[in-house]
Amino acid sequence: MPILIDDPAKRYARQLATPGWGADGQRRLSGSHVFIAGAGGLGSAASIYLAAAGVGRLTICDTDRVDLSNLNRQILYTPADIGHEKAPTAAARLRALNPGIEVVPITREITPTSACDLVRGAGLILDCLDNIETRFALNRCSIATGVPMVYAAVSEFTGHLSFLRPPATPCLECFAPRTPPPVEPAIPGCTAGVVGALEAMEAIKFLTGIGENLTGRLLVIEGAELRFDIVTIERDPTCSACGHLRR
Fold first, then answer.
1. Angle at CA 103, nearest 5°, toward 98 and 109?
2. What is the distance between the alpha carbons of residues 16 and 14, in angstroms, rounded to a whole number?
3. 155 neighbors 184 (Cβ within 8 angstroms)
4. 3-class SS at 191?
5. Which positions ≥6 away from 92 have C-beta within 8 Å?
6. Which domains are present in the chain?
7. Predicted pLDDT at 230
8. What is the spatial distance between Cα 95 and Cα 143, in angstroms, rounded to a whole number?
9. What separation in angstroms does the CA of 10 have from each of 13, 132, 163?
10. How far is CA 197 from the centre of its chain?
11. CB within 8 Å of 177: residues ≥ 6 apart
12. Which of 142, 128, 246 is nearest to 198 (CA)?
């Protein structure tokens, strides 16, 4: 007998069995709204797992179009998508994966003046970007609205991940370098896949209330040696973005 795609008990049975998840955790997921900034390598992996898990509303924001050079890591797309806008294409794929969720594509640029308008209504931000200035605009929006942000970055076989919620944690500008890399970083697809999946895990833990997020800690993944390190990060009291906040 075929499994109906609109049977949540069947679709989510394996995750519902996770200790602490159950029906209540699934209801929390289905009532959640996540803003995904970037539909590239990180955004592809993160959004696929959030859609599969049943997060009720995903907003996916990207202004780019699919290019042949994206296809080694941006697993939402196929050669037939080259030249098409990423956000609407990604949204269509995610809806096909899970018709029971809402996926909203946005093709507007994230800037210091637009960020909070774009994020409005979301309960969590996923930073799946590759541009430092855009990251900082999203960081300032997170501080202004109180919406926490999962930060991730990848280069070659290296990945960084943290859960940011100032003033309880540092903000991105407390520890991230302000100078962008001189060239586009090399990136194998597997690096983006691993770190993007971990972003989804951080999001799901926060949304269901299971486990502990990477607050005040930076996960550093050295994939070439398959080493995972945790670095403690602290707020900078002189930070121009979050230094004014009080615990």
1. 145
2. 6
3. no
4. helix
5. none
6. 8-232 (3.40.50.720)
7. 97
8. 31
9. 5, 41, 31
10. 9
11. 132
12. 128
- Other CB atoms within 10 Å distance of the CB of residue 35: 28
> Tens of pLDDT along 134-184?
999 999 999 999 999 999 999 999 999 999 999 999 999 999 877 766 677
Pairing of β 217-222 and β 227-232: antiparallel
Cis peptide before 167 (omega within 30 of 0): yes
Count how many residues are written for the chain.
Answer: 247
* Closest alpha carbon to 153 in 106, 107, 191: 191
Nearest to 223 by CA among 139, 178, 157: 157
Give CA angle at 134 (131, 136), nearest 5°. 110
Among residues 98, 114, 124, 108, the alpha carbon closest in space to that of 35 is found at: 124
pLDDT tens, residue by residue, 56-83: 999 999 999 999 999 999 999 999 999 9
* DSSP-derived secondary structure letter, 179: S
> Coil, strand, or helix at residue 2?
coil
What's the token pair of residue 66?
Answer: 């699919």
